């Protein structure tokens, strides 16, 4: 025994006992022990999840074989295969082309001060263990250190267990609605997932991706544009030759509603088109009408429904007063058989205000025929009259749907 061979001073004895206590059966020199004389590997790009190729390498001449400890953003251990031999780090990891990690699970139950030989794999392309290298692992009090030689593989690098924190790594959420792959269900869904989404064109419908325009501002946004129209004879508004154009493929009399049908989603408020009417109800049941000649309104269903094309009551509210007259009035019913239509034909949904004292109570009538004497009413005073604005350069209207 050591103390029999040599007479020790009290201080030397104390140090020896302390060392024995800390490092079990390790020989305890008076010089530096690896557990207090290691180099730190702390770079954030050494984390296994750092997946940008940075041409980092531990094969340079400046790398010296030494005891190393992983700290900070690099992680607290060397990376390892998950389980035993399953899963491997793919290029790039820890900023390197050939990421290195333990071939087996990281040992957990080493005695402090003992060291352990282990194998590091360097993966290359799809090969998990293209090159291997022997290293040593030592358990210190509550951390591990590793004796790492210069990487045998050019551009090989020892990866740590650190997890790279990205500001928002939820790719799906970021890209939602922005590509066919991440097509959304509706504008509402996009707005719910991305509060900062702006009005514009987005991808919708994963099965058959199409582009739609979303209003992301009005009343919380989430409105899908389904219809953009103009008038066929705005200057003679009350003549039979005046109608909306184009018209959606909603179920109206083909005999009288002689206006071209669109089934292509409008990409803006001035892109004259209409989304296939069968899809409207899949986007929701609330609708909003915006026109630059009549007030903007939004309606929830009562017993009536626009998307189901069903007569009945509506609960409408004003969104914005546009016309100069009759501010804050809204319709309260949807009817389909407007007065004067031949053979009771339906030529488009008709939004009326049932309490109006006039005989005809039309507020918005989406009429699409130049064959009857009727015309597409846009009357804020809900009396089927010419109370709309007449001073706008390009009179038009839009319908939006929301869940
Ligand atoms: C998506 O497209 C398919 C195929 O055109 C259609 O059947 C379906 O109704 C659409 N769904 C929605 C929610 O737009």
From TrEMBL:
GO cellular component: extracellular space
Record keyword Plastid present: no
Domain Fibrinogen C-terminal: 178-226
Superkingdom of the organism of origin: Eukaryota
Molecular function GO labels: metal ion binding; oligosaccharide binding
Keywords associated with the record: Calcium, Disulfide bond, Lectin, Metal-binding, Signal
Signal peptide bounds: 1-29
PROSITE patterns for the chain: FIBRINOGEN_C_2 (PS51406)
Protein name (record): Fibrinogen C-terminal domain-containing protein
Organism whose genome encodes this protein: Acropora cervicornis (Staghorn coral)
Taxonomic lineage: Eukaryota, Metazoa, Cnidaria, Anthozoa, Hexacorallia
